[in-house]
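Methods: example folding runs. The two proteins below were folded one after another, and each record is reproduced exactly as written to the output file, sequence line first and structure-token line second.
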Amino acid sequence: MTAHRIAILALDGVMPLDLAIPAQIFATRPETPYETTVCTSAATVHTTGAFTVHAEGDLEQVRAADTVIVPGTQPPRRPPEAVLAALAEAHERGKRMVSICTGAFALAAAGVLDGLHATTHWQYIDDFARDFPAVSVDRDVLYVDEGNVLTSAGVCCGIDLCLHIVRRDLGAVVANRIARGLVAAPHREGGQAQYVPAPVAVAGDASLSGTREWALQRLSEPVTLRQLARHAGISQRTLMRRFTEETGTTPLQWLLHARLGRARELLETTDHPVDRVAQDCGLGTAANLRLHFRRVLDTTPTAYRRTFGS
């Protein structure tokens, strides 16, 4: 595979988790082409944790990278002019630009987000909208993909965005393998709400994780709201409320995206005809599979297999 250079730009006040997420997901692996370097504009960068960062790379690596990732800082601040110039130059050269959490403030200050949709941490989104009126702010999403410019909401949404990038680059199988290694959810759609009343599922009987796992084992079968509620031992209304609280989406939307994820894996790893893939993932017909692929992924099953099939 051709090497893909990733520069993670650590600014002063960087949040340790925001920095660690892309460093871990884009770490060197036999099945990925990523060569990742942490970069700074100074010899030492202070984090919001109890340590400092001494990076291998500098702004020259940022300019030379294929993908530039800017983790968030707390509080969000305007980077030095040299940093803004390097970000603007990378963007002008067509490099992929990514922010995690409040890193969107740095991209916006460099003019990278002008005229585009973007998001950031919900606590700072009003400040972001006020400071950067040229940016169309999406408030209730996990991440925004504008092609060569991508932004994520707060902190752990960076996991969703980075896995989305891997999936876009290398397909669902590789992305799911990395997610399993992180013990992370394989895929959350970017359009889900970023602020969920119960962002972490409650352990034990109160959680619907067992019901979701039950459904995942039956993706090839019709699974109704009534069946999900019966398995969970609660009413359909309670299921809808608690499911949305735990996942940020409705049961039927969650099922649809789980089926699309299964279809992507089948297209990557088997030579089954499209109509069989549609049956095996629970979408019924090839026409229905093509419809959802076009609507959600903006491609066709055949084109997807041509790109990612083994």
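Second run, written to the same file directly after the first:
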Amino acid sequence: MSARLLPEGRTVRMGLIGLGSMGRHHARVIREVEGMELVAVADPVGDRHGVAGALSVLPDVEGLIAAGIDAAMVAVPTYLHEEVALALAEAGVHTMVEKPIAATAESGRRVAQAFESAGLVGAVGYVERCNPALLEMRRRIAAGELGELYQITTSRQGPFPARIADVGVVKDLATHDIDLTAWIARSEYASVSGQVTHRSGREHEDMVVATGRLRDGTIVSHTVNWLSPLKVRETVATGELGAFVADTLQGDLTFVANGDVRSEWERAATFRGVSEGDSIRYAIARREPLRVEQENFRDALWGRPADVVSMAEGVHTLEVVEAILDSAATGHTRTL
């Protein structure tokens, strides 16, 4: 069923539910984006960051819907995503849900189906897709600048985020890397294997190392934790012509070309490898990823071409997340 879009150029009446660590940033950005107006906010525990301004803080999603909104941003804890999103779908409200789409893949499928059946725009907030370094990496890979893609590796490490209470590091942080990897390669996951540790005394895992293979044959690995004093956000794509290295903390992208590996040693002549060649650090226009994400959502509501993360993609990412956790629990590689 096709989406019931808004007339292009008409101001989108936005509602926001969840005024916590992410919600407060969404409130600011929505107010800044041309063509959007924040007309209602809701949070059952109030406005602890003081972002509502002149708006009344409504107690629940029903109050948000009653305000006459066109679209909503859902930034409540993960376990509430399905309940809130289904209410918005039933009310005919276009919605972007912060990642992950829901607490489980089964729950996510119900959410995705509800928006599809209602003919509404449903999106998931994977803001890393709007990081300038990753956008440029994906564009250059698609243009053939890496040749055949062989491998994608990610490292996402740092101190524990106090905002998290209801999920572990896989659903909170590794979900970013799973989504961006499939997006960069333009290929879904075929199989995954994972190892996790519980070192902090919390119910959920706080470290994960995961490896896998995409359907196109690209091999991948992810190192993710929130118990490191060193903050790292790096994505490396390696192919037949060299490697792209994205520092997503700084929004920097570097290309390291393969060097000349010819050898005069007869005994080494059969070895086919590479050496480090020329390196280029690209000058990239840097825009706030969260703002780009909301602009993409607005454009999707107006029927413009827009790189939003579909709810179906959000479900696939959650299926991979669950496969990693199952692999860690059972010791077996999981096929998707």
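Comment on the second run: Helices lie at 23-32, 61-66, 81-90, 105-118, 132-142, 169-185, 289-301, 311-330.
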